[in-house]
């Protein structure tokens, strides 16, 4: 079972803008981090789950980690956002680990389009009520 990371979708106005940013990177998307995860081997075949509006909204499969040459590392991602069933998640700085058993399932293609159209605040409230 792979291990995953969670991270806030910083400067993203909505899951749709996050998707657009990811898809604008042809080969891979990269995020910079100061430290290499200690459990990096367990992250093989894992994903980075994105937090937006205090909930997990999607995931991007991890491609690996690479040194930048400036004392930092790139988190390399597939340039796509796979929508997941909304799950409440508190905001945090940096990234955190997420066990596979705690990761939300992917959504079907019809469900994703409806959720992208909803305001983030409404999604958060519906998720808190257990309706999503």
UniProtKB/TrEMBL annotation:
Please give the name of this protein. Lysophospholipase
Q: Which organism is it from?
A: Sphingobium indicum (strain DSM 16413 / CCM 7287 / MTCC 6362 / UT26 / NBRC 101211 / UT26S) (Sphingobium japonicum)
